[in-house]
TrEMBL record:
Organism: Micromonospora andamanensis
Region (Disordered) location: 1-23
Protein name: Pyridoxal-dependent decarboxylase
Cofactor: pyridoxal 5'-phosphate
Family the entry assigns: Belongs to the group II decarboxylase family.
Length: 516
């Protein structure tokens, strides 16, 4: 059968529709100039804000900003990029929290490298979706190369594989899904129902809360996560892990995974990976290493040894958007045995029919929890191609060095007490009143943190340790100097001292615990 050929001439009854104003906003061959101008205008606004920021924040309060956002009528467009950007200055850019500023010292947010921003601009415009080859083509191959590269850096061996995810939370969930399915691999459906409530995950008291969330999402029992207390060095003790595995087994429970952390969120400490791997290997338990924070060590010219033993893991979480200076989001789950990824596979005729496996069509959706998925890998690709891994590792080394300096500054300052020295780039400390009003120390630290953020001069984090309020620096900016740290310490001491001065002799105000 010969198919009819459709050309403009052959279909005179279907002339090209005239472009409507709405279509002028769609990226197409006709609108590329507008695209160039719009993106350049946006880039220019951000560049100006970055150049002019005098602090990491303006200290705006939600009740100040919310009315401005609320007042915008989303059904009445401005119709113009410049006007929309002017409006955006008021509701977002002016009061954004700027991670590039050297006195942003709070959470695990890094300043971002320019090649990755280039990648971000390219990937959102091309808009590949990483679920199937027919929606991404080269994007799939680039992501696969980066997973292979990461697995090699970890040392997982020739059967390794993995997939990019939205972040460490998803990577941890994914890892624990695989571990759960491996633990239940031989179970009948009836067995599964009996075994599911008996599954246990052993994790560190200093581990990330996404482990608990994952357990909940995976349908495990409310007490499924067995929390192992750390030693004073805030690292999980291999003996305690061994003990908990034995205890669970005696109680007829199945330990489906041990989660070790390479870079705890608060303390930046790294569990003794090799020894924990030994415990897991002896017990035949899946070892997941949450290296969301510590993954920067994979490219560190001087500190890679801190991850020794990670190569023995069954699965590893890597957050490039924490310590590879990548924009959110950019994370991966990497596994030792690619066959385990089958636990997240489902075939659908409209997307990834099973025959495509036989045809060796590389559909990343076969490994992912997501369907439509951003081509986040492009940011890391351009980073490696422009800067190279050593340059990224040098940046991470720099922030670790800076955090060591910060720790020394705090430790030498009688106004403060400091906890465990980080192996990465955090400092957990608290201001201590020396005179009267010592009972106000928790409130004073909490208020100092709030007052600092409200001033916009610096942003630090807070956490609770042993039921006491602490402050935390997370140093991820190589531009942060020892002078910045000293200045922020003075500000904290001033705010905390003022609070005690004003409240000594009165009951501490009712204080709620902040999100750390
Ligand atoms: C150790 C650790 N694991 C996992 C996560 C979660 O990562 P994400 O915020 O990318 O979901 C974090 C976040 O801070 C973390 O510190």
């Amino acid at each position: 059968m010969t198919l009819p050929v459709h050309t403009a001439e052959a279909t005179p009854t279907h002339p090209q529709p005239r472009a409507t104003p709405a279509r002028a906003h769609v990226l197409s061959a006709e609108t590329v100039e507008q695209y160039r101008r719009a993106v350049a205008a946006g880039t220019d606004r951000v560049a100006r804000r970055v150049a002019e920021a005098t602090g990491p924040f303006t200290g705006v309060r939600p009740d100040e900003l919310a009315p401005q956002v609320e007042a915008i009528d989303l059904d009445r467009p401005l119709g113009d990029t410049t006007a929309a950007l002017d409006e955006l200055e008021d509701v977002y850019l002016r009061d954004a929290v700027w991670f590039h500023h050297p006195r942003y010292l709070a959470h695990l947010n890094c300043p971002v490298v320019i090649p990755a921003l280039l990648g971000e601009a390219v990937l959102s415009a091309v808009n590949s979706s990483m679920d199937t080859w027919d929606q991404s083509a080269g994007g799939t191959l680039i992501e696969r190369r980066l997973i292979e590269w990461t697995a090699d850096r970890i040392g997982l061996g020739p059967a390794a594989d993995g997939v990019f995810t939205s972040g460490g939370t998803q990577s941890n969930l994914h890892a624990l899904l695989l571990a759960r399915e491996e633990a239940l691999a031989a179970a009948t459906p009836a067995d599964r129902r009996i075994m599911l409530p008996q599954l246990r995950i052993i994790a560190s008291a200093a581990g990330h809360f996404s482990v608990q969330k994952a357990a909940k999402l995976l349908g495990l029992a409310p007490d499924a996560v067995v929390v192992v207390e750390t030693g004073p060095d805030r690292r999980m003790r291999p003996g305690a892990v061994r003990h908990e595995i034995a205890r669970c087994r005696r109680a007829g429970l199945t330990v489906m995974a041990v989660v070790a952390t390479a870079g705890t969120t608060d303390f930046g400490t790294i569990d003794p990976l090799d020894e924990i791997a030994e415990v897991c290997a002896t017990a035949g338990v899946w070892l997941h290493v949450d290296a969301a924070y510590g993954c920067g060590l994979l490219v560190s010219p001087t500190r890679r040894h801190l991850l020794d033993g990670i190569e023995r893991a069954d699965s590893v979480t890597v957050d490039y958007h924490k310590s590879f200076f990548q924009p959110v989001s950019s994370s991966a789950l990497v596994v030792r045995d690619r066959r385990t990824l089958r636990h997240a596979t489902w075939h659908a005729d409209y997307l990834n029919p099973a025959r495509m496996v036989a045809q060796r069509i590389p559909n990343q959706v076969d490994k992912s929890l997501q369907t439509t998925r951003r081509f986040d890998a492009l940011k890391l690709w351009l980073t490696l191609r422009v800067m190279g891994p050593d340059a990224v590792g040098e940046l991470f080394d720099e922030v670790c060095d800076r955090a060591t300096q910060a720790w020394q500054l705090v430790a030498a300052d009688p106004r403060f007490e400091v906890l465990t020295r980080s192996q990465l780039s955090t400092v957990v400390f608290r201001w201590r009143p020396t005179g009267p009003g010592r009972e106000l120390a928790d409130a004073a630290n909490l208020r100092a943190r709030e007052a600092l953020a409200a001033s916009g001069l610096a942003v630090v984090a807070g956490t609770r340790v042993d039921s006491r309020q602490y402050l935390k620096f997370t140093v991820l900016n190589p531009a942060t100097t020892a002078d910045d740290v000293a200045y922020v310490l003075d500000l904290i001491a001033e705010h905390a001292g003022r609070y005690v001065h004003e409240h000594a002799g009165t009951a501490a105000a009712d204080l709620t615990c902040p999100v750390g």
